[in-house]
User: What shape does this take?
Amino acid sequence: MVEWEHCEKPIIEKLTSVGWQYKKGAEIFEKENEPLLTSRLIKAIKRINNVNDKEAQMALTILNTTPTSIEGARKILHYIKEGVPIKDEKGNPQQIALIDYNNIENNEFLVANQVRHMGKQLRILDALLYINGIPLVAVECKQIKRSWKIAYQQIKAYEEDLPNLFKYVQFSIAIGDRVVYFPNVPGLKNVPVYEWRGKNFDDLDNLVELLKPSSLLDALRYFIFYREDKGVITKVLPRYMQYEASNLIVERAVKYAKEEGHRDRGLIWHWQGSGKTLTMIFSAYKIKRLLGNPTIFFIVDRKELEEQLSGELKSVGLSFEVIDSINKLKKVLMHADGKRGIFVTLIHKFREEELREVREDLIRLSKRDKTIMTRKDVVVFIDEGHRTQYGDLAASMRSILKAASFFAFTGTPISKKDRDTYQVFGYPDEPYLHRYFITDSIRDGFTVKIAYQPRLENDVHLKKEELEAFLSSKLEEIPEEYREKVKTELKKRLNTIKVFLKNPKRIKLIAGDIAKHYIEHVEPFKAMVVAVDREACVFYKEALDKLLPPDYTEVVMTYNPSDPNEPGKIREYHKKLRERFSGKDDKEITEEIVNRFKYKDTPKILIVTDMLLTGFDAPILQTMYLDKPLKEHRLLQAIARTNRPYLRDGENIKAFGLIIDYVGIFKELKRALEIYDEIDIREVATDIKKIKEKLKSDIEKALSFFEEIEVKDDRENIMKAVEILFKKESWDEFQKLYRSIRYHYKLLKEDRLEFKNTFTWLTQVYYAYYAKVEGLPPEIEIKKDEFVEDALKFIHRTVDIGKITKDFPIIEIDEKFLEKITKQKPNERMFTDLLFAVRRYINVHRGPLTEDLVEQVESIVERWKHKKEEIAKLYKEILKIAQQIQEREEEKKKLNLSELEYSIVTILKRHVGDNPRLIEDTKTLLNETEDLRFPRWQEKSDIISTISREVMRFLVRKYKGEIDNVIRTRDEIMEVLKRWG
Assistant: This one.
């Protein structure tokens, strides 16, 4: 009832107010377990396409027979966007539209609540949103005080259990303490989770803006894609700032191309990490669809950005061409009135001396014919628009693409006399078309805060003024007539700052600090060292190799073997590198290093000077050791490499990016930010003092859960704390707080002592809860924690894990344990020991084997929490369940069966009846499927389908006529195979 008031009722009311029709789930179904509302869909197909029943039925059959695999789901999205291909009665191909995108009123928008579907068990979805009878959005509701993650996990369970429904559902909404949306992808466990921001105070109102019929159709048609990268298929959904910016771009470009508007440019100012590349792709895709056959250029200024953008276009399935030579560019420009399509190229291809003839030809042709110079349906997207759009290359490009519209994307616009991003791409009354800055990005969780910490200030920081004063005094000692000549020669031969920064003693000192800091405070996150030049990179690699395992670090930089001036140190390192990566060229070596950094255990630290400081996206990168003087937008872009969130189960587990400063860069950072409004930048660099304040605040909040007990390091008080968290259902909130406390505590050094005792106690409560309630030993849970996969050493230093293991042992239900407790008089401690032991068994053996026990146990828990019955009565009930468990375990041992074998025998017994053949049959089934059940087979949809077919054939072959429900039996066996097989 509370969930109805907090969530279901409000979302239904909000949806009906913007054009949705409402029905109860029980009113809409025509056929059990059929995800499509068939009669509504048939009517819509006939209405939209003007076809007969037979043709509509053909389209429906194609939808029904599309498999539930990832490939099937991709096809379904294609059908939703483009229609279903059929052949009419005369054999002519025809495209049957499922949705009328041009006439919104021609579609039916229906929201239904409490929608029942039968999977392995009955599932009731809080709400489903149907367009023309197709379920496209699922909604799961929780009370406002409960975590959205519970709703998220519930939908993930439905996804697995109801694949036939979720092949249609494009995204889902989880509502609780936050309102979030996320993509549905068959078989994918972790997906990103987003919030739709807007002008309303209530985020539910903001999300309804996306669910308005016109907005939802727009998103379905132009903003949702499947994306394939390195064999992993995910789904792209728009973030709200991408959706807003793209639609502003599209509206301007289309109006200008159709001569309905005169504005032909715009600046998109989106902070690093907010997804500018996808915003460009969304915009290009929609413009292409609306204009029919335009010419769209993506202009970048670096080869790696060209490759990155090409990879993104390819991953979402858009056709495009890379213009990889000036000759190819000339052909594109001179082809008829300009070649149509999407093109990616470097700004450097627009060299004036190479294109002079082309421009003159186009000027001449434009006098009598349409050319690319006069066409308005040419759209140019410029990545990193602050960098190269002020000089000869940009002038040459604009002189050829005279009538095109231009849209520049930047995270750091420049406003200077000779380089003004606002002036080039904006208007006096509109400096930018859309802006999404640092504070927006941090608030929304698309980026994390960046913390700044100077280290070794007195020993290694660059004191520029002192260095210049020293050189001036030395120059004074030189006779005046030679002084200017010496000064000029000195400038030529000696970059004094580099000499200072590359001092081997200085690098050795910093390397020692980096190695210690990384091991103690960063690992298992990763780091980057930014050195002053390429030679310094090699010095750092040599110094760090003496302190850390050599595979911990790799250098990423360019090499110039044909240059006679290439320093010997670099030549020597390059030679060794090529030997290590035998048979690979420099580009392949860099790719391998970068991919291993992102996805493998090592390298853990990259050493760079110029490469990877822009456009490099690696969420696992948390710390940058900065030993190079950077300025303005270059500095902002570099430090932003650390600001990507690191997601696990839809939640960010990286508290902040950390900049360790060895050059005294903070003045430059302040200067770099002065070009932006103070309100926009005050959150960019957080001092360590603020982290300490945050730690203090979080600890106070955490302790407020336990006001009625003493913070005392003994079993009784820790047990009371665990019980409070369990009974008050506060675990999710406490867990989130504790993890935040741990992030911040781990970062502090000498300042952490004042928090040590409290932190130790909270840590004991945290791991005791896992041991007692979840039945996970502390060591396993520490290893399981995605935030710190190998933080065992740190936790062992903080708290005595052995003590927790001893005080809160994992209780196994066996004859010895039951015999012991039945001899004692029941009390609350014995009851909780038994209750949590039973819950642990059910969680570990979740599935057909324990489904009959789940409801009984949860009923006991609820009555205990709300003190509805005496402990003695509840104890008797839970003891009876424990005895059933023990009997099953004894039977398993007696039959000499594994967990998997016993589970399948139990399922068969339930559906076929007791039969002496069952054990032998089970072993036969497992033998027949053994070769298919290789490690992690459960992640491959085609293998799941193959095994499922084999199980079905086996059941029909062995038990035809004997089995009560062959499909349900097959599904239950598949569930235990996935879990134990």
In short: The radius of gyration is 32 Å. Residues 796 and 802 are 9 Å apart (CA to CA). The mean pLDDT is 78.
